[in-house]
Design a protein that fits this description.
With 328 residues, the chain is an alpha+beta fold. The protein has helices at residues 105-123, 160-176, 180-191, 232-252, 297-301, 311-320, and strands at 2-7, 12-17, 54-57, 80-82, 86-91, 130-137, 149-155, 195-198, 202-205, 216-220, 259-264, 279-283.
Length: 328
């Protein structure tokens, strides 16, 4: 069962998906559904013995088309909507224990092309208003399958955090006749202390307003709205800076760092979002090698983050960690 229930206090949809309680949880390496099917072994979700990148339908989706019938009847105060949409799993590698940071820039470029293709295909569907590409990495994040993979959710509405960004960018553009993110990039470059890595097409920073201690935002230098706006060279640059940031994360504390990675792009509802700006955000939960940043009462109940670190210092630590070229 999956349906959307309206929260009138926050004016946002909540996804109720009870069938996800039954999804596979931390299976042993020899019984992983995302590993390739090997001769003489039990079949997995992937019938081939080897692959580069694979996109699968999520077996426990939050959205599906056609959508299931709602289990309750809504009313004016509490509307209910079918959870129509698409949920996909993007498997990065046939290697069960290999993280994305260990892949070559060339391999990550293939992944960028897959993301771009799936964005374009899903954006064309009439029921889809937003294509959300993301990765949850690490058991502390809540990952149920350790095999390296990300996900794509094709939403029937614009998610609330993205909606707030859109509103802020639109308001800033109307007032200043400039792009908000372009101005943020300019300010970060003038200051310099929060820069983590950069190349000709992208800049990675710990933002001035970081909510997580080692949060990193990767901004496109050119004013674009989505992956489909990237040139071929810019796609390689994105792969390069992703590789650079991931290597720094894994070098920071001497272990592969868990994180959430999210892509913020224009909605796909057909409206004009020329004022918006494509970027990628990373949220690691670690504040030290042995301590986590929990979303406790102030963050979860009041919606106000407390960062126990200084962005200028964490950016300096990340700059010094690891070494990988950020691409062309």
């Amino acid at each position: 069962m999956s349906e959307l229930r309206w929260n009138p206090l926050l004016e946002e949809w909540v996804i109720t998906a009870t069938h996800r309680q039954d999804r596979t949880y931390q299976p042993p390496a020899d019984f992983c559904p995302l590993c390739p099917t090997l001769p003489g072994r039990q079949a997995t979700e992937i019938p081939d013995a080897d692959f580069d990148v694979v996109v699968l339908e999520n077996k426990f989706p939050s959205f599906r088309t056609p959508a299931a019938e709602a289990t309750v009847e809504g009313n004016e105060l509490h509307p209910v909507m079918p959870s129509i949409g698409v949920c996909e799993v993007v498997v990065y590698s046939p290697h069960h224990d290999r993280t994305l940071s260990a892949e070559s820039v060339g391999k990550i470029h293939k992944l960028v092309r897959v993301w771009r293709d799936r964005f374009e295909v899903l954006a064309a569907r009439s029921e889809v208003q937003y294509v959300f590409i993301f990765e949850n990495k690490g058991e502390v994040i809540g990952v149920t399958l350790p095999h390296p993979h990300g996900q794509i959710y094709a939403f029937p509405y614009i998610p609330p955090r993205v909606k707030r960004e859109l509103e802020a960018c639109q308001t800033y553009s109307a007032k200043h006749h400039r792009c908000l993110v372009c101005d943020i990039i300019g300010d970060e470059e003038r200051d310099g202390r929060r820069i983590v890595a950069g190349n000709e097409a992208f800049l990675a920073v710990v933002p001035f307003y970081a909510r997580f201690p080692y949060e990193v935002h990767i901004h496109a230098r050119r004013h674009i709205q989505a992956l489909t706006d990237l040139t071929e060279r810019e796609q390689w640059s994105l792969a390069g800076i992703l590789k650079a940031v991931l290597v720094k994360y894994d070098s920071l504390f001497g272990f592969t760092l868990p994180y959430m990675m999210v892509m913020h792009q224009r909605p796909t509802d057909g409206a004009d979002y020329a004022y918006y700006h494509f970027h990628v955000e990373f949220y690691p939960l670690h504040r030290t090698a042995t301590k986590l940043k929990f979303l406790a009462a102030c963050e979860s109940g009041a919606g106000s983050f407390i960062n126990d670190t200084e962005p200028e210092q964490t950016a300096a630590e990340l700059r010094a960690a690891g070494s990988s070229k950020a691409g062309p």
